[in-house]
Amino acid sequence: MHSAAGLSFIVIATAFASVPVHAQNTDDDLRVYAAGVINVAPFYPFSMTGVYLGKGAVLTAAHVLGHWPPSANPTIVIAGQKLAAKIIKKGSFPALDLALLSVNEASLPVSVRLHRIPLCKAPPSVGTNVVVVYPGRTARSRVISSQLIPSEYRSQFGTLLRDVQGSGSGAFDAERKCLLGIMSGSVTTASSVRGQIGHAGYFVPASKIAAFIPVEFRF
Fold first, then answer.
1. How far is 138 from 22, CA to CA, in rounded Å?
2. Which domain covers residue 178, as residue numbers?
3. What is the CATH number of the domain that holds 97?
């Protein structure tokens, strides 16, 4: 568990058993963008998740890479293929929980190389239906209000889903099919009803992703 100025914040692995799975065809179409990030931390017995943006670029959460140096070569799985990746850029948790990696695009199937993920231009609005994409499955969620967390944390952790999702996975607008953000962790929420405590999934929004990605990987 990590703490951000007193705010409970938990990083979540993809092996999150209670996440609901939806087999809707339109949701499953987004699975082409899912990437596995494996063997990147010495004590993780499972794969983590990332998103294939296009041009050989893979985006995930910075904490998924742990303390590996920039010279490390994590293994990325895209469309069932294991590829060595280079760390291009890495933020820091929790300030900017993003990491960009690159694989040899020529090693990918043509069907994957043709894809490019559009970033959502508009800020996420409350009630937006969201598809969270993992290798092999998808999960439905919804954007919730930042009013559920204390005001002093909203500027940094104000983009929230009602469900906790796996770190590094991509959150897509279910209607527009653009990338809303990258899942980062779990934020404690407090309900006004009988003081109930819950958890919401925080995602790094597309606006921060757009500023983070180097020019050569933009499209």
1. 6
2. 2-25+117-206
3. 2.40.10.10
- According to the model, what pLDDT value does residue 16 have? 36
Residue 154 is classified by DSSP as: H
Residue 89 to residue 87: CA distance in whole angstroms? 6
CA–CA separation, 147 and 14 (whole Å): 27
- In this structure, is the dihedral angle defined by the CA atoms of residues 112, 84, 182 and 89, taken in order, positive or negative? negative
pLDDT in tens, 154-200: 888 999 999 999 999 999 999 999 999 999 998 888 764 455 678 89
Runs of H (alpha helix) within 94-205: 110-113, 154-157
Give 54's contacts (C-beta < 8 A, 6+ positions apart).
Answer: 113, 115, 116, 117, 219
Tell whether 172 and 159 lie within a shared domain. Answer: yes
Name the token pair of 104: 């040899």
pLDDT tens digits along 27-38: 989 999 999 998
105 with 112: CB under 8 angstroms? no
